[in-house]
Amino acid sequence: MTETTKQPKTGGQSEPKSKIKANDKSAKTAKTNAVAPIKNPGDFRLLKWICVIVLLSILAGSGWLGWSEWQQQQLQQQAYANLGIDFNDHVQQSHQYYTDSDSLLDVQSNHIKTLSKQLSDLQLQVNGQGARLTELGSTTRSDWYLAEAAYLTRLANQRLQTERSTKNPLALLTQVDDLLSNLGQSDLLSVRAAVAEDMVALRLAGVVDVEGVVLEINALANQISGLNVLNLVILVETSDLDKEEVSTDKNATWMSRFNGFIDGFSGLVKVTDRDIPIQSILSTSEESIVRSNLRLLLQQAANAALREEPAIYVNSLENAQQWMATYFQLNAGSKKLQERISRLSAVNIVQQLPSIDRSVNALESLIITRQARLSDGADEQSVLNDEGSQP
Questions:
Q1: Are residues 299 and 223 part of one domain?
Q2: Chain centroid to CA 21
Q3: 333 in any annotated domain
Q4: What's the CA gap between 380 and 34, in Å, rounded?
Q5: Would you say residue 18 lies in a domain?
Q6: How far apart are CA 157 and CA 154, in angstroms?
Q7: Is residue 222 domain-shared with residue 304, that is, in the same domain?
Q8: Are 121 and 202 found together in one domain?
Q9: Are the C-beta atoms of 245 and 297 separated by less than 8 Å?
Q10: Based on the structure, what is the number of domains in the chain?
């Protein structure tokens, strides 16, 4: 605070204005000069506190504004995060929806394909029934003959594979040729040519009478009981020389010892004529075993003939011959039996099976061609009927 000294007015108001202005200037100058040196410590402290309070207020306001802004940013970030989570959830839901939609579309597509296939099958059945009705309506005598001929050719092929014999297939193909010749149609010549080729192939393959071979082997097996078993005794003649003579004298020469050895060895062997019937010394059970083994070998050969196994067949017959030569007498009956077994071992038991598919393929091709002609004729007739029905 500054104090100013007021000058008393003297002379009244009649003083000139210039003097008054001069006095005012001098008074202002005096005030200015008087303020500068005057300093109050209390006022300065108050001013400092005011500045501190203002500064704290500014800082508090700034902090509050910053905190408010930070809170606002946190709220915005949380909102953005929530929006991101919601967006991801929506994306996942959309993806799941699209996946479910694709699965549903796949199921519907498969169902449509199944229905389409069923519809196609039904259409094929309807077309087949229609074609069958048309065929039945237009079936002629020659068609029935061709169907029978096709059945017989397939049966001949089947019999050839199952029976492994050319006899019955040849008879069936002969019947097929008779049916085709009775029709007397020119377009059947190619089919008859195929049938003739198959018949020639069957005739050239020959006939292997496996049943006859088996029956003959069984008949030979029945003759085994009448064969005589060989006497297997080897007569041994012991020397009557004394032990003292066998030991010989120390003074005997080497040649005399050798001659004595030869004479003693020749007395141990006895040669018998096997053409002469001799008494068998085998027991009844042993003789039965020998005959059963020979029958078993012949039966094994018969089974190999039925299975068309030539190696086992020949081996079994050769073993039977060897068994007879070892255990049976070589008289007239056994020799004839061995000769018959030897002849059977040279018989071919494998039936050659030719291919007779030419006749089957030719008949099927002819039937298909005729059915195609009938179908084309029916289609042309239906087209003509449709054109005639139109105005």
A1: yes
A2: 131
A3: yes
A4: 139
A5: no
A6: 5
A7: yes
A8: no
A9: no
A10: 3
Burial class of 92 by CB neighbour count within 10 A (0 to 12, 13 to 18, 19+): exposed
Query: For residue 96, how many other CB atoms are within 10 A of its CB?
Result: 10
Q: Compute the distance between CA of residue 338 and CA of residue 321 in angstroms, rounded to an integer.
A: 6
What CATH number has the domain bearing residue 203? Answer: 1.20.120
Q: Is 194 a member of any domain?
A: yes
Encoded amino acid at 6, one letter: K
Say if residue 214 is in the same domain as residue 327. Answer: yes
Domain membership of residue 49 (yes or no) is: no
Closest CA to 234 of 280, 288, 270: 270
Please calculate the CA angle 104-107-111 and round it to the nearest 5 degrees.
135
Classified as helix, coil or strand, 168 is: helix
* Domain termination residue (choose one: 84, 119, 138): 138
- For residues 203 and 318, membership in a common domain is answered with no
The dihedral formed by the CA atoms of 153, 157, 163 and 166, expressed in degrees to the nearest 10:
80
Residues 287 and 319 in one domain: yes
| Tens-binned pLDDT, residue by residue, of the chain (391 aa) | 333 444 444 444 444 444 444 455 444 444 444 444 445 666 778 888 888 888 888 888 888 888 888 888 888 888 888 887 877 787 888 878 888 888 888 888 898 999 999 998 898 888 877 766 765 665 677 888 888 999 999 999 999 888 888 889 999 999 999 999 888 888 888 899 999 999 999 988 877 888 888 999 999 888 888 887 765 544 333 334 344 444 444 444 666 666 665 666 555 555 555 554 544 455 677 778 888 888 999 999 999 988 889 999 999 999 998 888 888 887 888 888 889 998 998 888 888 888 888 999 999 898 888 877 766 655 554 544 455 444 4
Distance CA 258, CA 244 (A): 17
